[in-house]
Design goal:
This protein has eight helices and 14 strands. By secondary structure, the protein is α+β, with helices and mostly antiparallel strands.
Length: about 350
């Protein structure tokens, strides 16, 4: 008989931005390796997570994605869970269920692949990491992909987080220091490994677990990672979650550019719908400055980092590939971002 500590992780009902919760279950099991379908459902107090009232507070955790736990070590696991009502239906805060529905009712046939560029800002107390107690650091410029103690702050946590993601089996693609001091980015998505799937549900699952690991490891360093899209007002870049998406048609050299331009037209037609689910306080970031298009405008272009949607130059040269939606904020729910992208680009009509 094996015994593991399994951390059940779920997304709560906090508003306007959902956050993560977790608790640990001791799970005995016979068959090794442990699989997600072997895990039992578990309940929690929804009245303490903004998801239920006190007189009827029990909600259900259904494990849906299982990875190794790189924090507590060998033979322990992290289980991302969907939140269900007592009758087994998806709770209103369960945005994964909606994405799964969209994939099942038309998205899958287009074989969409997804990749997220998750920016975040490290804080020590109330101050961005590396900032002086009073005033501001030097203007942005030398910090992006910088090196040196006067340019980069928090690398010890960033590198620990990257290794933890690798050890867990998360589809980590890369990391880099960002434009504002104390700001970083990691990428989750397609890596060209045959055994991995870059389908939207899996990539979103991995991003949520990677976020949890970032917060959890921050406890060890007494550093807080924040996802606010404009963590510091003024002449500083905000924090986004640029989202790369392709379909089978976009990746095909015969249909690639036509499919990409068709997708961009569809995205333009639903610009307001997308903005509505791309993160709270997004207007503070999408100002038309700092490598963004204004929130009220939709712009697209090749190699244009001031556009709403960018076609990477190598994609344009090759004639196929993917597009980058630069509008989502760092705090957006990846399930909601993925759902509306697949719905719009793949023209999925779902049953209510």
């Amino acid at each position: 008989m094996n015994i593991s500590q399994v951390t059940y992780i779920w997304i709560d009902g906090s508003s306007p931005t959902q956050t993560l919760r977790s608790k640990v279950k001791i799970v005995p099991y016979k068959n090794s390796p442990l699989k997600v379908e072997d895990l039992p459902q578990w309940s929690f107090d929804g009245s303490s997570t903004y998801q239920a009232s006190g007189h009827d507070s029990d909600l259900i955790l259904q494990p849906v994605c299982l990875v190794k736990d790189p924090v507590t070590g060998t033979n322990n696991f992290l289980a991302l869970c969907e939140v269900l009502n007592p009758d087994g239906t998806p709770h209103p805060t369960n945005k994964r269920a909606r994405l799964t529905q969209i994939m099942n009712e038309g998205g899958k046939k287009h074989d969409p692949w997804l990749g997220f560029e998750q920016e975040y800002t490290l804080f020590s107390g109330q101050q961005p990491l590396g900032w002086p107690d009073r005033g501001y650091p030097a203007p942005q410029g030398p910090f992006y992909c910088g090196v040196g103690a006067d340019e980069v702050f928090g690398r010890h946590l960033v590198e620990t987080h990257a290794q933890a993601c690798i050890d867990a089996g998360i589809m980590l693609y890369g990391t880099n220091a960002e434009v504002m001091p104390g700001q970083w980015e990691f990428q989750i998505g397609y890596r060209g490994i045959d055994s991995e799937s870059a389908d939207p549900v899996t990539v979103c699952d991995h991003l949520w677990i990677a976020r949890w690991l970032l917060y959890r490891l921050g406890e060890e360093f007494d550093i807080t990672a924040k996802l606010h899209p404009k963590p510091v007002k003024g002449d500083w870049n905000g924090a986004g979650k640029h989202t790369n998406i392709s379909t089978r048609e976009m990746r095909d050299p015969k249909t690639g550019m036509d499919a990409i331009h068709k997708a961009i037209k569809a995205l333009e037609a639903r610009h307001k719908d997308h903005i509505a689910v791309y993160g709270h306080d997004l207007e503070l970031r999408l100002t038309g400055k700092h490598e963004t298009a204004h929130i009220s405008q939709f712009l697209a272009g090749v190699g244009n980092r001031g556009a709403s949607v960018r076609i990477p130059r190598p994609v344009a040269n090759k004639g196929c590939g993917y597009l980058e939606d630069r509008r989502p904020g760092a705090n957006a729910n990846p399930y909601e971002v993925a759902a509306i992208l697949v719905e719009t680009i793949c023209d999925v009509k779902t049953k209510e």
